[in-house]
Amino acid sequence: MTIGHGIAAALALVLAGGMGCEVERGREPTLEERSESARVAGQAVAPAATLPVAAPGDGARRAAVRTPGEQTVIDIARRVSPSVVSVMRDEGSGSGFILTADGIVLTNAHVVGPATTVQIGLADGRQLEGRVLGGDPSVDVAVVRVNARGLPAVELGDADRLEVGQMAIAIGNPLGLERTVTSGVVSAVNRTPRGFGLDGLIQTDAAISPGNSGGPLLDSEGRVIGINTAVLRAPGAEGLGFAIPITLASDVAQQVVETGRVTRAFLGIGFRDIDPPTAEQFGLPVREGVIVTLVGGDTPASRAGVRPGDIITRLEEVDITQGGDLRRALRARKPGEDVTLSVVRPSGEAKVRVRLSEAPPM
Fold first, then answer.
1. Among residues 35, 81, 110, 250, which one is catalytic?
2. Is 342 known to be catalytic?
3. How many CB atoms lie within 10 A of CB 60?
């Protein structure tokens, strides 16, 4: 390298570094430093971009910009989340909630399965053994007791007075993510989805995922209106979650706590729904009701003369338009009661008097 080339290289290095300006290690040159370097080098430097910075602000200011609906969900989540528990057994886990301060927990029958004990995880971190007291698989409700006192119990609402469109909030443990909160509305009431084996359900678009089962569905006052139980999954289907009305679930809980079991009235038949397409296809005389497909031996139905092919249209004063109507009508009755069934036969309409018995254990 010639002396002239060395001087030129040194000058270029000085100019690039900024005419005597020392650049600290790990520090970017300031705008003034870069501007000075550029002036000497005869270059123009654009000012550095200014990025927006999120100001934390104070809590009162942040709360002021929340909508009333947002604040409602926030308040309910804070108040009710301590009452939501995880329910674990070897085969999987789900959710539940504390019904009474002395240790009664409600969840789904399919969450506890055949187990006699389950692990209950409280919001305060405690893991307690829960003894399964009983339940009713036909409505997917189970009752568990833990040995604890002073627990944060939920407040119950009235599922019989729900209005379509009112707020619905779900809290549970989907995929093990404890106390996840989702919100939506009551999409429909008294639903009987085909293939579920359950009837009279609350439909909601509040997101329900695996692990949410057994958790509470709440109204805008934070009161429990249902137990989240299932989601309908189909191509293109979203927001089809279902919950068991709390009025039904609390009745099961009361029977289990007081007597150790659930007593249900029993008719002893198998049946399927009639809808207009079915009625038209088979030339049936009615367009709705339930058609008896089998009659169990030595059951109330067989003793009363109910036979396959009978179409049941009423039980006492209750119209039977589908299977859910019949199941609800039977739940409202007690073993030993006499009821009158209105049936349609090829020979015409008939009245059949049946004495209900107690349903066998499931």
1. 110
2. no
3. 7
- Taking all residues of the chain, what is their mean pLDDT, rounded to a whole number? 85
Share of the chain above pLDDT 70, in %: 82
Q: Is 102 a catalytic residue?
A: no
SS3 at position 322:
coil
List the catalytic residue out of 187, 213, 342, 357. Answer: 213
Mean pLDDT, residues 185-203: 87
Give the Cα-Cα-Cα angle 229, 94, 192 (nearest 5 degrees).
10
Residues 136, 140, 199, 310: which is the catalytic one?
A: 140
110 annotated active-site: yes
Residue range 250-271, pLDDT digits in tens: 999 999 999 988 888 999 999 9
The residue among 207, 247, 189, 239 whose CA lies nearest residue 223 is: 247
CA distances from 229 to 203, 226, 241, 354 (A): 10, 9, 8, 33
Q: What's the first-to-final CA gap in the chain, in angstroms?
A: 98
In 3-state terms the chain splits into helix, strand, coil percentages (rounded to 5) of: 25, 35, 40
Question: pTM of the prediction?
Answer: 0.72
**What mean pLDDT comes out for the span 281-309?**
93
Structural contact between residues 133 and 213, judged by C-beta atoms closer than 8 angstroms: no
Instruction: Spell out a b/e string for 98-119, using b for 16 or more CB atoms within 10 Å of the CB, else e.
Output: bbeeebbbbbbbbbbbebeebb
Helices in the chain by DSSP H: which ranges?
3-17, 31-41, 59-64, 68-80, 109-112, 246-259, 276-282, 300-304, 323-331
The pLDDT of residue 41 is above 90:
no
DSSP class per residue in 20-87: TPPPPTT-PPPHHHHHHHHHHHT---PPPP---------HHHHHHTS-HHHHHHHHHHHHHGGGEEEE
Please give the DSSP secondary-structure letter assigned to residue 261.
S
Neighbours of 283 (CB within 10 A): 6
What's the pLDDT band for 62 if we cut at 50, 70, 90? low
Calculate mean pLDDT across residues 304-318: 95
What's the confidence (pLDDT) of residue 362? 64
